[in-house]
Amino acid sequence: MTSAEIAVDIENVVKRYGSFTALHGVSLSICENEFFTLLGPSGCGKTTLLRSIAGFEEVSSGTIRLKGEDITGLPPHKRPVNTVFQQYALFPHMTVTDNVMFGMLRSGWSKTDAAQRANQVLEMVQLGGFAARKPAQLSGGQQQRVALARALAPRPAVLLLDEPLSALDLKLRQAVRVELKSLQRETGIAFIFVTHDQEEALTMSDRIAVMSNGEVQQIGAPPDIYESPVNRFVADFIGETNLLDVDVHSVSDGMATLSLPGGHGFTCPAAAMRGAGKGHLSVRPERIALCAEGAGDLDATVTGRVYLGTDIQLHVRLADDEAMTVRLQNSETTIVPEEGSAVGLKLEVGAARLLAD
Amino acid sequence: MASKTDLRRFPGFLTVTIVCLVVLYAPLIVVAVYSFNASTSITKWGGTSLAWYVDVFTGPEAPKFQQAAINSLVIAITAAIAATIIATLASVAMTRAGRFRGKTLSFALISLPLMVPEVVTAVASLVFFTAIGFTSGLTTILIAHIVFCIPFAYLPISARMQSIPDLYEQAAMDLYATPREAFKLVLLPLMTPGILSGFLLAFIISLDDFLITNFVKGAGVETLPTAIFGSVKQGIKPNIMAISTLMLIVSVIFVSLSWLIGRTGQDKNQKT
Amino acid sequence: MAAGATTSGGTVSNIYKGNSAKLMFPAWAMIGFFLLAPVGMMIVYSFLTKEFRGGVIWEFTLAAYDQFFFDRGLFGDEPPSIEWTYIGIFWRSIWQAGVATIACLLIGFPTAWFIATRRPSTRSAWLFMITIPYWVNLLIRTVSMKFLIRDTGPLNEFLLWTGAVSEPLGLINTNFAVQLGLFYSYLPFMVLPIYASVERYDFSLSEAAADLYSSIWTTLWLVILPVVKPGIVAGCILVFVPSLGAFLAPDLLGGAKTFMIGSLIEEQFKGSAGNWPFGAAASTILLSIVMAVLLIYARNQNKGSER
Which InterPro entries does the protein's record reference (chain B) (predicted)? Predict the structure, then answer.
């Protein structure tokens, strides 16, 4: 990556509130024309980071650069970035058009240009007919689009989105995801999107930064994050997983030989594991196949079955009392074992991920 | 539903409420009715007439009461404007500046006029104005009124401001508004209902005051309440009832206005 | 977070923080210079020597307090004896204010409860009806009450006409008239805070209590009272404090026998007595009582919120 391609460069950013540290030296780069997601549980620092980019939080130390230019000390109104707020923050006393024109008029656009551009962005979010309404007269979904239009109208260098979908209901949320993604392609600017919803992150992002406790745990494309989590937190936070305590006997040529609970041997990519020792094996529930007892890598007893529609979730228990879940696709040919029956579990070698202790 | 467990319907509470309203309204209604009495004897009913209203504007005491009414209005409007401006600035600091040194003390100071008994404020003001040799008619009344109107203007304004999240100002600044523009274009318009009801409240409170005015007023200066009090001391005359009824109507109009403004403000808030 | 949370930290508060002194200054100056300083000066005056035509001579003395509390005087040869006249007036004021407060509570609580349990749409209309009289000039309201209850007033005329009484009730110029006047003046102050606390009460709690075998009275005592208590206490203070120093109700509705603090003080400055230091001393004592009540209230409030 050359610096010209980097839209936002965050270097060693620390944010302290009194004795509490919200960001422990975060460094990451967001490319031009990239849909970049900050993902993590509440309190992980993702919103603080976004607000630091917008200028709403003064960072305690570190540097934030926008297209190579240091903006760390600039107040929010001097930063060419715009935010879509979680509660939209549409000005209730202004019409939709006035809301959309607000940013342009403050940044030196002429009235006619601003009005023209406002029409254009409102068309873009399919709200052309609502220009004269007040925010209170719009539905939640429409308000969300106005917020988007308002933030995009002044042509910001980067668009920041602070959990903008969390106030919408499920159906609408799914529809807006697709639109948001295509809007990002259309405008060709970087979107930095904050969410705690991993499904949202996985479906929309070019890259995801998983955050926890004020630190970036892993940055990568959605498949990397999902299939090759670098640590227990990421494995556990993204999707469902089974974490098994394993003993690694040796590592050679990037492959690790280990023994599973119950004593069966197993070989899989070593990943971050450098040598023998205790480790954790992360196996996704859908990457486990059922087989006859004794024929697989693990033996278990079925303790419960949950019908999920597309899938059937099987709760099983290993000999050492460890609980695991297995997902079976719901089809006519699927044979679902009875509760209490003994089964064997076969792990997909490529999908099992070894994590250091 | 079993009415035994429904505490919302205590029997007899409606009766008490009605008693409460009767006690509150009976004197006012009686005076309003008797102000239309044609008889010169104020207790005997002599038919309906507007004679006493005519008397208020043209009778022998008309110039005195008119001057008093003008004084009252001038003081109430000026005091309410001044108190509203002071209270608006204070509530911006109290609700927007986060924690700052002397915040608790500032709040105590703003509420002080509410805590000090009226008669004590009256004595203190009289003593103070006399000591600094400041006894010129309307000005002393005006200053005293501004002081005790500040908390009354402050309460609705700061309540309104507390209900406006600073998110809107953040959004404005995110959209390139300078702090000054964010205040002028976003916060101030959103505060307007609160500012208006604060102004109306201060206005009514100023108009209402008798005790403090009576202490600090210069010789020969009267406001409506002090003029009415002086007149009532000689006995209740019918023209007082007509004036009272007029003032009652003015008060009701102002309170209704204030209530309506407050309600539209709330509706807006609830919808967004 | 919903509306109501205003300071999420960050820029907005930073911008105003630097200006907080400038924004607060007019309020500080006005109240500090024209209320706080005058109250201080009033306290100083209470220790000065009186001048007979009103005003003071700048000479320190405890004469005002001496006159207030002692008959034979603190500095005479004889042992001092307590002067009961003024203490009696204070005591009567406390008594009258107390009776008015209890009357307000007895009528105000059911009223507030009734209003708070209406549907939200009708609630504000009831509330509006309760508050309107408060906004009508206090003097006019008191005069109206005087007109209504005096011996030749409409109330007695009506009662005589119906034959319910054979002679006028003689309400005016009695303690009862003053209590009625105070009650009438400050009733909305009782209703509003109680209303606010009852409105916050979640009535499903009492249903839960009933479900758990609690009788209606146990529920009232154990579940509802703790919730509405702050409203009741606030209401009592809002009625008691202004009643204590009230001037109009005792002056217009009461007679010589119902003299209260407000009239005593007024007489020193506006009336015939013309003893400024004594009036300042009486005011200082009144202020001390009120501040003590408010301090006790504030301390209990803090205790309550810490729990």
Answer: Bact_Polyamine_Transport, MetI-like, MetI-like_sf
